[in-house]
């Protein structure tokens, strides 16, 4: 098992400039300004992500600094030893043994961008850390690419119909009616064991003697956050693509957006399969048992910025706008959740200080990519404690945005 600890380097707070650009409006709030988004929209080069002053993007520098200080103060109290951190998170579960790589975490870190320019950094944003369930958003994006390219005809198709012979993921009677949409929304209720982890052992409910006799639900009926079932989706996607999912992600997303060469997406020591005579590792959808996405804050911010620009990077439409609309649509079993891991701010319940249209991709720790179309902001916040800290940080960040009478920011 890989376990590495890198020196913790606390970067000095950098409040840096940003240039005003045409505002991108959420797809759920179309306007002439959104339709008229021009070639002047800034996209960072691979090795040159420009920094601008907060005042140049209509933000108050002192209030931006308050948001940054709040993020630093909100450093999660969990151990920096990731083995211990995960043990404290999931150690009461049966089958809690780590089977994927881990790495000791760094300090509270992050980035704030507006109009695509970096206006603030803190901690060690270059550090590659485990991002836990933010991985799920990378995974569902890869499933979305399969849909875009016609490898998956319809998300309401049965996943079973896409599996080759001798792959029995969906052969049990209870699993036969699971659709791709159910997997994407964590409403599949898939039953079984994958990579030696039974579905019932992930966040088991009730008394221990009841765990293996859990209530069964029809697919699509019940939302349950469950990493075994997310890993089922990852394996199903691998069977569809017939190539490693990190390679797919790199070719179609990470390379085009100028991500670094430092990110890695891992599976488990026992998650190797044979496809077309080649050994391939089925990746995990998070760090529950180790593995998942290891990535720095800048690459996370690039990923978030891709969605702020509605799937477009430069003159290329990398992710379908239709897919993003689908991902942002609440499921009938959970109005605060779209596709994994699109956490929605429906009725402003999750983050009262943020617009209802904002979304965030979150993983244990917490690791967060915050995407706000109304304010043209992407922020990455890593190792933020719970208990309302995210709402406080976002509130201070949005308070720094100066009112404008124009429909386009910065005009």
Ordered list of secondary-structure elements with their pairings:
Layout: E1 3-4, E2 11-15, H1 32-35, H2 61-73, H3 82-90, E3 102-103, E4 109-114, E5 117-123, E6 129-130, H4 135-148, H5 180-185, E7 193-194, E8 197-198, H6 227-241, H7 245-254, E9 264-275, E10 278-283, E11 292-295, H8 297-308, E12 312-313, E13 316-317, H9 321-327, E14 342-344, E15 359-363, E16 367-372, E17 377-382, H10 389-399
Helix pairs in contact: 2-10, 4-6, 4-7
Task: Characterise this structure.
By secondary structure, the protein is α+β, with helices and mostly antiparallel strands. It has a domain of 147 residues: DD-peptidase/beta-lactamase superfamily (Beta-lactamase, 3-Layer(aba) Sandwich), CATH 3.40.710. The protein is built from 10 helices and 17 strands. The strands form 5 sheets. It has a 7-stranded antiparallel beta sheet, with helices on both faces. A 4-stranded antiparallel beta sheet has the order 6-11-9-10. Strand 16 and strand 17 form a beta hairpin. The longest helix is centred in the middle third of the chain and has 15 residues. The protein starts with a strand and ends in a 12-residue tail after the last helix. The N terminus and C terminus are likely disordered.
Short description:
This protein has 411 residues and is α+β, with helices and mostly antiparallel strands.
CATH topology of the domain at 137-283: Beta-lactamase
Name of the CATH class of the domain at 137-283:
Alpha Beta
Mean pLDDT: 90
Distance between the termini: 53 Å
Name the structural class. Answer: alpha+beta
Which percent range describes the beta-strand content?
A: 15-25%
In CATH, the homologous superfamily of the domain at 137-283 goes by the name DD-peptidase/beta-lactamase superfamily
Q: Which runs of at least 5 residues are low in confidence (pLDDT < 50)?
A: 1-39, 405-411
What overall form do the CA principal axes indicate? globular
- The total count of helices amounts to 10
> Got a strand count?
17
Approximately how much helix is present in the residues? 10-25%
CATH architecture annotation of the domain at 137-283: 3-Layer(aba) Sandwich
